[in-house]
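Whether sequence alone determines local backbone shape is best considered at the level of individual chains. When preparing material for the folding task, we compiled for one chain both its residues and its backbone structure tokens. The sequence in question and its structure tokens are set out directly beneath this paragraph.
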Amino acid sequence: METERFETVVIGGGQAGLVTGYHLAQAGQRFAILDAHERVGDAWRHRWESLRLFTVAKYCALPGMSLPIPAWECPTKDEMADYLEAYAERFDLPVRTRTRVHGLSRDGDRFVIESSAGRFASKRVIVATGAYGSPRIPTFSRELDPSIMQLHASGYRNPSQLRHGDVLVVGAGNSGADISLDVARTHRTYLSGPDTGHIPVDIDTWVARHIAFRIIRFHGVHIATIRTRHGRKAIRKDLAKGDMLVRIKPKWLTAAGVERLPRTVASRHGKPVTEDGRVLDVTNVLWCTGFRRDFSWIDLPIFDEAGEVIHEAGIVRGEPGLGFVGLPGQYSAASAVLPGVARDARLVVRHLLGQRTASVTPIAV
């Protein structure tokens, strides 16, 4: 099998991979970006139809190119997808779409990447697959009656996919709350999961976008970082608890007729059961239970006992030439989202190219 050789290979062609490619291009590197999707931006394009980002366009933009919408508007998922595609075209980023990576190992002084499109070898590899991996769905889901339609949030598009009858949305984070409002327009809806709090202001008002969001963004990008004790504590808390609701407010859910329930913890006679013992007679279950990072394809000694990557702000000291971009809590509380990913990509690229050697406090993610 013929092996293509590059100085650097970036795995993942979402915003994390594209902004990494931008910094590599600025440094004059010969590199390739490998992505499993058919088109650049598909990771956004294939999400639910009503999705709109929390972050205004001004802070969603990647280096060198603004979004083609008003700076203080929040883009839709399709606007974000089209922007990423245009970004790759504008900077002539070498994205290889329909290239799913299924193996990463080392052979001497080179990394070897096995993919659906062949084998690649490179001196450096940057894994930029981001915060999303394999859907996390409880094992008891397999015990639910086959007549109940089950969808993970990653497969949900709109209410027309659902069967007639009641809907249980499991997971009360931002995705669960957003999808619950969408579904409640046509179905009786239950939202199951603990209250993680919410931002008290309406983020779609002028005051919130121009003042409150600036403060929240500054804290997430510059204050809550792994360089300070406060930042490390904030990051660990966020990773353990989950994000508070940003756009959706609990009173909006109540007004829409969404009934809040405790966690869904088991199945009984083929029906979901909440932790207070309530058995729900529903015909649809939407799992808004997040994702688990799946690095099973990486055959390198870079994981701790819990299977988490051991790194320092995305740099893997035990494997020279290997870096990560887009991991939750990688450098700041904003590392896995658009406002923080560009800074992280720049730091990782500079380090791997020998332009930066400063050490930071280690943190597993």
